[in-house]
User: Fold this.
Amino acid sequence: MISILFELKYAIRSVFKSIGFTLLSISMLGLGLGATIFMFTAVKAYVLNSLPFPEPERIMHVERKHAVKERFNAEISMHEFLDIRRTQKSFEDLAAYYAGTVNLSDEDLPVRLDGAFITGNAFSQLRANAILGRTLSA
Assistant:
């Protein structure tokens, strides 16, 4: 027991003897732990958790490749979407969305909010019900 106390006193003396090295070590440990926790949280949120809908493995995001710029994520017009929806045979149905901003106002100043524009069948495709009121109709 006495040797443990002796070693502890020696460790505390060493810490205060080289305070710069001690602060650097604590900072590095803190940064390493913080980065590890951040990465775990990001991976858990985006990879390990599934979508909050019934049968999330059956939901797909479909986009097209831009012919000239050779990149995916090209937006399609509503007419193209309706043509694809009418002619496709691989899916039960297709729903479309477009993320954007909207302005809402009451008696005070207008407020800009982030939102999405969706087709009327989006809630039925996701098998989601409205908490208050009703969902959209076609």
User: Anything to note?
Assistant: The chain has four helices and four strands. Strands lie at 64-66, 71-74, 97-104, 111-118. The longest helix spans residues 19-48. The radius of gyration is 28 Å.
